């Protein structure tokens, strides 16, 4: 039986780990805050390096590029406990360029690196309906795909080159935030025109205007429920990566740049821990109206 390890039990990782356990997989886990492992029937270890000897495949889901570097390659990083032939699956959203370097470092130690960022929010992690975009060795992917199936509805290999998955996630985030901007503008227009917001949403979501963001975040916005499926602070981290990647390949992304600045205005108001659908609050300030008023 393949032994599994999981590092990072935050807003996404905990749901993914829980689904692995629910599907009958034994799991060795580590998290910076051990209390986040409470309620999981997993083997909690004291150090990230201790996950390595107990695992043939290690999944990592942490916040940013420096976090991946620390938990994998730091003095107590998990890779120091892994053996040649093991697979490390990085579900974090990080720099495509850094990913290439991480994969090369891992390869020198005989460890196979798959960059496999996910999309679908905390709901998708809990329900097991995430979309996974994977870069790296396709043979290694087939080895770990059955485990990914525990928390995903879609696993797509986007390229053999390390970093391909991270670049696909950048594409994903462009679509996410511009959809969120569209939902925000549309609902504010409905509010300004005096329409019933719930009926307006119901009228349009079944047609060409329908989207995941509209159906999942629209109702929250109408109810002014800003609990996060994905926080503004994390969204901003992703948008910085998008802007860097776009700059590297010379592609203009003016819409992303606009959303980045709108989110920055919300961060300046101390709203970075709210859900990314709170983008509408930046537009409410411009319009002088609020959803639900």
Describe this structure as you would to a colleague.
The chain is of the alpha/beta class. The chain has 2 domains: 4-160, Rossmann fold, CATH 3.40.50.720; 168-287, N-(1-d-carboxylethyl)-l-norvaline Dehydrogenase, domain 2, CATH 1.10.1040. Helices cover 48% and strands 13% of the residues. The chain contains 11 helices and 9 strands. The chain has helices at residues 13-22, 65-73, 96-108, 121-127, 138-148, 164-192, 197-205, 212-222, 232-249, 254-268, 280-287, and strands spanning 4-7, 27-30, 43-44, 57-60, 87-90, 112-115, 118-119, 130-135, 152-159. A 6-stranded parallel beta sheet has the order 3-2-1-4-5-6, with helices on both faces. α1 links the parallel β1 (4-7) and β2 (27-30). It starts with a strand and ends in a 6-residue tail after the last helix. 45% of the residues are buried.
- Give unreliable regions as ranges: none
Question: What is the structural class?
Answer: alpha/beta
* Biggest pleated-sheet summary: 6 strands, parallel
- The level of helicity is 40-55%
Distance between the termini: 57 Å
Provide the succession of SSEs. Answer: EHEEEHEHEEHEHEHHHHHH
- What is the multimeric organization of the chains shown? single chain
CATH superfamily of the largest domain: NAD(P)-binding Rossmann-like Domain
Average pLDDT figure: 97
CATH T-level fold name of the largest domain: Rossmann fold
Strand content: 5-15%
Q: Specify the CATH architecture of the largest domain.
A: 3-Layer(aba) Sandwich
Keywords summarizing the entry:
globular, three-stranded mixed beta sheet, six-stranded parallel beta sheet, 48% helix, Rossmann fold, alpha/beta, 2 domains, 293 residues, N-(1-d-carboxylethyl)-l-norvaline Dehydrogenase, domain 2
């Amino acid at each position: 039986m393949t032994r599994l390890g999981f590092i990072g039990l935050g807003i996404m990782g905990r749901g993914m780990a829980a689904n692995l356990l629910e599907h009958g997989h034994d799991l060795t886990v580590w998290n910076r805050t051990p209390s986040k492992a409470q309620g999981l029937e997993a083997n909690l270890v004291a150090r990230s390096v201790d996950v390595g000897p107990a695992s043939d495949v290690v999944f990592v889901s942490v916040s940013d590029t420096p976090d991946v570097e620390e938990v994998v390659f730091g003095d107590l990083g998990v890779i120091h406990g892994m053996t040649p032939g093991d697979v490390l699956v990085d579900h974090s959203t990080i720099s495509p360029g850094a990913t290439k370097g991480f994969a090369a470092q891992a390869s020198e130690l005989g460890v196979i690196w798959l960059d496999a960022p996910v999309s679908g929010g905390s709901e998708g992690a809990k329900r097991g309906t995430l979309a996974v975009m994977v870069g790296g060795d396709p043979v290694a992917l087939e080895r770990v795909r059955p485990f990914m199936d525990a928390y995903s509805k879609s696993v797509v290999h986007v390229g053999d080159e390390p970093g391909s998955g991270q670049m696909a996630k950048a594409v994903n985030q462009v679509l996410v935030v511009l959809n969120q901007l569209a939902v925000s503008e549309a609902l504010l227009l409905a509010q300004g025109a005096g329409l019933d917001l719930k009926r307006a949403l119901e009228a349009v979501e079944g047609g060409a205007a329908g989207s995941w963001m509209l159906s999942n975040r629209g109702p929250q916005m109408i109810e002014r429920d800003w609990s996060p499926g994905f926080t503004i602070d994390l969204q901003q981290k992703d948008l910085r990566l998008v802007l860097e990647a776009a700059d590297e390949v010379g592609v203009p992304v003016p819409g992303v740049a606009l959303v980045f600045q709108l989110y920055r205005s919300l961060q300046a108001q101390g709203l970075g821990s709210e859900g990314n659908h709170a983008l509408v609050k930046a537009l409410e300030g411009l319009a002088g109206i609020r959803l639900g008023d």
